[in-house]
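OP here, attaching both records as promised.
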Amino acid sequence: MAVKGRILSGMRPTGRLHLGNWLGALSNWVRLQDEFECFYCIVDWHALATDYEDTSRVPERIREVLIDWLSAGLDPERSVLFVQSDVKEHAELHLLLSMLTPLSWVERVPTFKEQLRQLEGREIATYGMLGYPVLQTADILAYRADTVPVGEDQLPHLELAREIARRFNHLYGTVFPEPQGRLTEIPLVPGTDGRKMSKSYGNTIELADAPDEVRRKVQQMVTDPQRIRKSDPGRPEICTVYAFYKALAQRLPEVEERCRGARIGCVGCKKELGEVLSSLLEPVYHRRRELENNPGVLREILREGSRKAGEVARATLEECRRAMNLCGI
């Protein structure tokens, strides 16, 4: 039997996940469970990079992310699901790697300056924010993951991880594989107002939304502003409803032909999309309701996941210490 490769990926606990998170990453993670040994981490330390001032909701947000993961199909029998801060080896490896990572490598990763621009006015120009790509590298290398699912925007982070792994292996002997990217084509999922789907814009369709709420939100979607009457030909290329069909890769020729040919109005088109999305998300919604009433199950999944992750990470750190002559006398 062929040995499976190993994957590490994670999400920051920012609360309930939305349709963009599902289509962009989570549905791919579910598929990867059949091909790889998967470690999926709720990266609560990473959340501190931008939200260190108020940590009161971190436990609640961890719970919400875990419920969404399980509801969408991540299986604790096939994947290791755990919280980053429960495995202290991440922090130790971050420290060790930071000692050998040139400052210029971290400074050239574009995320730091982008975050400063996006969150202008907030005090996030911190040591932790600058160095968090090294913590990401520690997350990956602690499990000696050989594959990381990424979108194109994350490739600079992965290349930094590869460079750090190469430098460590050159200095101390080979301990780490150089993780390879598994490029994920992330569909552009708009929010209900046409902008990128984002909690900060208040334009999301959450995995936790009940079917009626999904339909209500779809009815609020922005469509072609120049289409006044049903008999007016539509322009699907500027319509949020059509953009959703593109993200779902469903019924594109049919929807486009009916819109351009004025065979369906915007209200009717939104009603049909509402049924498509509510049917898609209804099983997730019902699994969520079951899990919300079983906090003991959630705690046990994370406890067992942290135990399994910790065993792997401890073995990695023991080898790192030996390689770096940090095992005492």
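Record two, same layout:
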Amino acid sequence: MSDRLRTTFAGIEFKNPVALASGTCGFGKELSEYFDLEKLGGICSKGLTLNPRSGNIGIRVWETPSGMMNSVGLENPGIAHYIKEDLPRMRSLDLINIVNLGGHSIEDYVEAVEILNKEDIDILELNISCPNVKSGGMNFGIETGCARGIVKEIRKRYNGKLMIKLSPNAKDIVELASMCQEEGADAVSLVNTFLGMAIDIKNRKPVFANVNAGLSGPAIKPIALRMVHQVANAIDIPVMGLGGITSWQDAIEFIMAGATCIQVGTGTFMKPDISMDIIEGMEKFCLDEGIKNISEIRGIL
């Protein structure tokens, strides 16, 4: 592979701008049976919380036209288990290790970050789409004022590269991204899943125990692309774009819209090694178009 896809993101060098999205690849172990993980630019860990979580009851994944819905509920082994069992293996791989962190209160986030501060990770991806238990279950990432508090507290404590994962359900995602920049974030990633619903008409009840669930996949791509374009044109820190990317053409669109790197999520469920197709396609596109480095077409719109 040439240097055509080599990318600098928030001061960190990626061999290519393709990472696997949080919650779609575990910690990479299972997918390593399908392809060489070290051909990726990076991996975003499954969403971690301070303590282990068993996740939601009932149906967790539901296929929809051109997409899928999920209500996993942040099932994960917790920070301590990850550091002991998974982080050493992640650190041994030649790729960028992005740790995704969630929480349900500022105290949760702060305690987890103080632990992660002692570990060797490349980027902390702060998921602020979690329900804030002290605000009646409203997600941290919906209101800019609420989100500012958590970003400010984490930035004061975390010494490494900090990327904030933004929810498309925010009232004003451009305002939210601008706030993240103001509070010292090194980057933002967007978009997380859209809030949706599915109904079991035979049993006359919602498919999911929590009623609502997150929609991802190709169906959301045009909206995600629009949001990435708006945010990338409004802030100076880099954007990692995601939302329905299932082909190299999709990835190129996100780069042209202003994303520096991209994440592949639901596409991995369709084809475990789809990220390899995307990387190869992007490389060939650059070669065919006489593009010496992918940065030449970033944010050209």
